[in-house]
Structure formats: C-alpha cells, structure tokens
Amino acid sequence: MKSLITIACALLLIGCSDENPNTATSVQTSPPTVVEENITTDAPTVETPVVTTPPANPIATIDGATLYSQKCASCHGAKAEKSALNTSQVIAGWNDMQVKDALTGYQAGTYGKKMKAIMQGQAKTLNEAQIGELSKYISTL
Predict the structure, then answer these.
(1) Which structural domain, as residue segments, surrounds residue 102?
(2) pTM over 0.85, yes/no
C-alpha cells in the first residue's frame, strides 16, 4: 500500500510540474512519417536487389586545368614556370608522356630525388584518369 501511494505521488508531481517538456529542450522532432503500403496477396513477392554506388570522388571528374590549379600551381606556378621550392625541374614544356611518367613514378616511389617524398604524397591521391588530364594540361603550358 505504501509503495502504491509513493508511485501515485510521484506521478502527481510529474504531472503537476510547471516545466513544459516541449519547451525544456531545444531538440525539435518531426512527426512520424506514415507510409501506406498496398499489399496484395495475389502477386508473388519478389525482392528487388539494392544496388549501391560508392560516392564519387569529387576530383575524379575535374579537368586538368582545375586539377592543376588545386594541386600543383602553388609550388610549380600558374604556368608551370617555377622550380618547386627552388629544388625541382621547371615542368613547363614537358610533353604529356614525361608528366605521366613522372607522376606514376612518384606514385610507385621509383622517380624523383630531393622532392620525391613531397611529390609521392601528392601523386598518390591521383587516379589514372586524373594523371591523364594533368599530363595533357601541363604539356600545353
């Protein structure tokens, strides 16, 4: 009996509180969404496979000029006219095969001297299509 009175008092106190539970918190919730389903028992149930596509690499579809300005221009100059950190070769005038060989060599760790570690980090983030776009663009500078 005593526990029943304690529970009743607790419920009464909770219900008589001055605090409005809807204003005590800043979290807003949306009403539940009701989805109606039309289910028929005549048709056989067929599960449709869910196809998921990995998120696209936002740099993957960027043209060579944009990619160059984002990844290369700060060290090599806007027109590839600079010796990066006064150490590397000037890459303006290189043909696309020279650029491609250098970038893939940096990725593999088989190309480069003083700038090898820095360029390896830059080149590792590039995929084959991006290297192709960069190579074509740099060869026009």
Answers:
(1) 64-138
(2) no
